[in-house]
Write a structure and sequence with these properties.
- The protein is mainly alpha-helical and 130 residues long.
- It folds into 2 domains: 1-22 and 95-130; 25-93, no CATH class.
- The protein is 39% helix and 9% strand.
- The chain has a 3-stranded antiparallel sheet, with no helix packed on it.
- A hairpin with a 2-residue loop joins strand 2 and strand 3 (64-65).
Length: 130
Amino acid sequence: MLRIPGALVLISLFAMLITLSNVNTAAAQNVWGDVMPCVSGEYRPCGIDTGECKKGVRTCEDGYWSDCTNDIKPVEEICNNEKDEDCNGVVDDCVDNTFGYVCMGAGIIILIIAIILQKTKFAEKKEKVW
């Protein structure tokens, strides 16, 4: 049976979690279109009005709402320009993922080394028994 020290597994998983946690949430803040019927000629605001994003307009065409037009959607954050391009309400919330990638790589290497060492110990014990 292969036994990997629990601390190594936790370090590896933590490093991977750090890397994967930097997800842009602006997409989750976007407003989805309605599929409900409407009266032709009606209009309604759409999108978000946070940071650099601006609401647009949906119009009712043939009984259904159009896509959002004239809105400014979230984009990837540009660091150090005093603007909120990803429209999450925080100016310049840039995260350098280099540390996360280094941690994840180190965690994977540590995990591989632990597996190799464990197999080597198991092989040595097996030879001594025979």
